[in-house]
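Below is how a single chain appears once it has passed through the pipeline. First comes the sequence as given, then the structure the pipeline wrote out for it. We keep one example in the README because the format questions we get most often are answered faster by looking than by reading.
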Amino acid sequence: MNVSSMLKLPFSSNGGWAELQRRQFSIPMLAWFVVVPLSLLPPVMLYYAGTHYGDDFITGFGGKEWRFITTILFLAELLTFFVMGWLIHGVVESHKLKVSYNDAYLLAAIAPIPLWLSSLTLLVPVLALNVLAVFAAMALSCTLVYQGLRSLCHRSPDDVLTMSVTYTVMAASLLAWGVLMALVWAY
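Resulting structure:
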């Protein structure tokens, strides 16, 4: 799969999604080659920002136990992948649509990629830029879920069932993201 196909995933249910589905990636392969490496980005970037910028970035940011926080964040991200794959499959099946476990976990691995990559903005100690990047990443993640569900479930555009599943999955995803961020700030 080429880069242009990957960049089209959030904006189209044609092409790239079908190719990914045909490849039948196993869940362990998705976990080891997509989720684990990309899940390392936010903890590493957060550790870097916390130890290099400190209170200059956000008040109270410098005095935290970043090694502990980032380790817990990494483990929570891995757990979230497995829970979200299970949740996607369950929600899709409850709406009488069909998706395999591999496809549900494929979507659970692909959808958070913009959020993981948005952590790279922590290289720049500008809070407004980081907040903007996170909101843009959330929007891209939502569109990835919608387009992925449309393609993986073989649904037509503007399908109400796909929209309903997307809303449920995104609500759970945003809740999980909120818990992860609360975890960071709690310690």
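The mean pLDDT is 90.

See the next section for the split statistics.
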